Amino acid sequence: MAGRDHGGGIDAARAIYGGARSDWLDLSTGINPEPYPLPELSPEAWTALPDQAAMDRLLTAARRFWSVPEGAAIVAAPGASALIAQISYVAPAGRVAIAPRTYNEHEASFRMAGWEIGPNAAAEVVVHPNNPDGALSLPPNAPFTTIDESFCDVTPHASLIAEAARPGRIVLKSFGKFWGLAGLRLGFAIGDPAHISALRDRLGPWAVPGPALEIGATALEDMVWAETTRARLDKDASRLDTLMEGVGAVTLGGTSLFRLYQVPEAPAVQDALGREHVLTRVFPYDATWLRVGLPPKARWPQLEHALGTAGGVIRAGKASRGNAVPPDTTRKAQSSG
User: Fold this and answer.
1) What residues form DSSP beta bridges with 283?
2) Tens-digit pLDDT profile for residues 156-173
3) What's the farthest any 2 CA atoms get from each other in the chain?
4) Nearest by Cα to 309 from 253, 258, 269
5) Is the distance from CB of 32 to CB of 229 less than 8 angstroms?
């Protein structure tokens, strides 16, 4: 299934707007712009097949960091996306309930495995907090449930990790977003031992490379960095809201890794920012939604400059609509920033 909508894509943006790659500020993803500092790696991390001791250390750190309940199993994979692509195959195909405005890889994976998408289903997928609006979910009740917590590390108090102890539950965790190391490709599935075992079998041996095992374990063991980072992200998310509201955008919510705004014509605002080499995210299902990630500390001035141009586009759009942005009709988003 080709052509699914995602953030990223600096090369494609450069083909339209020009500029060197280093000129571009990619705010189209929800990746922490101040990543975890890479530790020094052992030579064996690069030269040997990943061993069980390294995996055990990683999984022990993961259990402690996420307070994994007793009885829940856990498997590490080369990114949460690799797990999303396989989850639809660990139960017999049927009907699965997936919200229409959420991360689109879940629906794509279930459709590819022969599932029907619709309500009143025996299976359910919830993204918690939701991407892109940040809405939080109640614990789902379907017998086979996936809870995608890829963005929940900024609000650990909201985690539904306790659900992992229930039969039929799988909770997903992404490493690359909160720790800012998306290129490392590391993710986790936590939950029903039978489903986790099936995922482990589908992933095959040595699914996680040695460097990811060592870096992931070191980062998950560093609780001080995590707490400091959450405080910084909250502060920066509030700063971004202030900037965007200052040029006429309406804050809808999001998380402290990405913010969702309503503007009269999101593609036009995205275009104006793109001309200043700032990449943002729009959505095919709502032409007024603009998602913006956080810039690294040294590049806030670039965003502020770009918003000088984009603000004119927002104000012009409001004027053409009678100085009002169309009301949002979606469920209210939960903001962590």
Assistant:
1) 286
2) 999 999 999 999 999 999
3) 65
4) 269
5) yes
Among residues 23, 28, 98, the alpha carbon closest in space to that of 259 is found at: 28
Beta bridge partners of 281: 291
Q: Which helix (H) or strand (E) holds 111?
A: helix 105-112
* 194 touches 170 (CB < 8 A): no
| CA pair distance 246, 165, nearest whole angstrom | 45
CB atoms within 10 A of CB 194: 13
Task: Please tell me the predicted confidence (pLDDT) of residue 8.
Answer: 79
Q: Answer for the pair 153, 310: CB distance below 8 angstroms, yes or no.
A: no
The H-or-E segment that residue 68 falls in is none
Q: What is the pLDDT of residue 4?
A: 65
Q: Cα(224)–Cα(103) distance, rounded to whole angstroms?
A: 30
The predicted structure's pLDDT at residue 325 = 54
Of 96, 55, 72, whose CA–CA distance to 194 is shortest? 72
Q: Which residues of 64-94 are buried (b: 16+ CB within 10 A; e: fewer)?
A: ebbebbeebbbbbbbbbbbbbbbbbbbbeee
Instruction: Give how far Cα 80 sits from Cα of 46, 61, 208, 235, 315, Å.
Output: 22, 17, 12, 27, 39
In one letter, which amino acid is 295? P
169: left (phi over 0), alpha (psi -120 to 50) or beta: beta
Q: What angle do CA 237, 326, 319 make, to 5 degrees?
A: 95
Name 11's Cβ contacts closer than 8 Å, sequence gap at least 6.
Answer: 21
Confidence of residue 331 (pLDDT cuts 50, 70, 90): very low
| pTM to 2 decimal places | 0.93
Residue with tokens 């309930």: 97
Inform me whether the pLDDT recorded for 334 exceeds 50. Answer: no
Q: Which residue has the tokens 């589908």?
A: 202
Half-sphere exposure of 200 (CA within 13 A, CB side): 13
Q: How far apart are CA 320 and CA 225, in angstroms?
A: 47
